[in-house]
Amino acid sequence: TSHIVQSMRLQVGFIGYEASRVDIDRMVSGDYNIQYKPLETLEFSVSLIHRDNYIGSAKSQEINYGMARVRGKLLPRLEVVQEVSGGRNTSMTGNTGFDSWSYRSSLTGRVTAKLDVTTGYLHQRIRDLSSFERVKNQYDFSFGYVVTPSIQTRGSLNLTKDGHTRFISHDYSISWALSTKISTSGTVSITEYQNGTSSRSERYSAQV
């Protein structure tokens, strides 16, 4: 139907070497994508990817990946996205590999005529063949505010927890259009890193 869009793609790549080497390395990959839009405000999509790498005639790597996403507009100026993905990456040459999956959520909206806000969350897990698991959580928040038609401010806050490591960053800026040819702006960036010990850096800049 007109609400469903599908696509398929197959790629084959070759890498040749000097004449003394007979083998030719190659890559074979294929992907399938489907998008379903039952309403103007609601969209579903699924993507599947498979890739094989070869060294000569022997397979050296296999990658399988899948992703499902839902995008919807709860209000005319409020959009939400939910995404789940996962896959397996296997290396035949080193007998290594890992599984990964993640969940991502974001919310973007115009709170007022002058204020835009975006929030996001990411949860990711990676596990190798030895069952060692790495867990990552990330939180994001950003805003844009129009003080006057000539003065605008923006800011963002990011918190990432990756195992025992914690990373926090703040970025804030303000811009002022004095005229059609002259403008000035200033930014502040603060970064904090914690992993047993703590460190902090600050950066300030101004432009005219």
Write the layout of secondary structure elements.
Blueprint: E1 4-15, E2 25-39, E3 42-55, E4 58-75, E5 78-91, E6 96-110, E7 115-128, E8 133-148, E9 151-162, E10 165-177, E11 183-195, E12 197-207
Antiparallel strand pairs: 1-2, 2-3, 3-4, 4-5, 5-6, 6-7, 7-8, 8-9, 9-10, 10-11, 11-12
Radius of gyration: 23 Å
- Helical proportion? under 10%
- Mean pLDDT metric: 90
Main sheet: which strands, in order across? Answer: 1-2-3-4-5-6-7-8-9-10-11-12
Low-confidence sequence ranges = none
Number of DSSP strands?
12
Count of helical stretches? 0
State the distance separating the first and last CA atoms.
54 Å
Order of helices and strands: EEEEEEEEEEEE
Task: Give a written overview of the molecule.
The chain has 208 residues and is mainly beta. It has a 12-stranded antiparallel β-sheet, with no helix packed on it. The chain is extended. The N and C termini lie far apart (54 Å). 0% of the residues are buried. The mean pLDDT is 90.
Summed up:
With 208 residues, the protein is mainly beta. The protein contains no helices and 12 strands.
Sum up the structure in keywords.
208 residues, 12 strands, 0% helix, extended
